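Why do we care about 3D structure at all? Because function follows from shape, and shape follows, mostly, from sequence. That is the central idea of this module. The next example makes it concrete: a single protein chain, its amino acid sequence, and then its structure expressed as tokens.
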Amino acid sequence: MTEIKVETEIAAPRDEVFSLVLDPNRLGEWVSAHRGVSEVPAGELRKGSEFRQALSLAGSPFHVRWRVAELERPSLVVWEGKGPGGSKATVRYELSENGDGTTFTYVNDYSLPGGPLGAAAGKVTSRPAQHAMNTTLRNLKRLLESNESR
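And the structure:
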């Protein structure tokens, strides 16, 4: 598995940050690789909720089926994803209060199919994935701090 971890400080209350990041319909406002969602359940997500997301990384489009594996409002959500060809990902959003703001930690552990070749490809894809995650957290920070999130 390849792990990428990014953290940012956001000048917004933790509840507000959590509400935004847990809404699949708002992913396009901040996730740089996002291209669309489908099969989103009605109402608030809970443990076991699933949806499908279209993404593009380094010009390569793909789909991931996400399931909420863990949920502790408003501090943690763990997503388990299944992508093309047996690829898998586990994404953790950890939110902690930091004064009047929030420390948001985003961890993505993913594996590509193909055994040793897939592991080598994971190392190659880590640079564009790291760039996408950095851009994504800058987008989230800007969105929440500019009050565009409401």
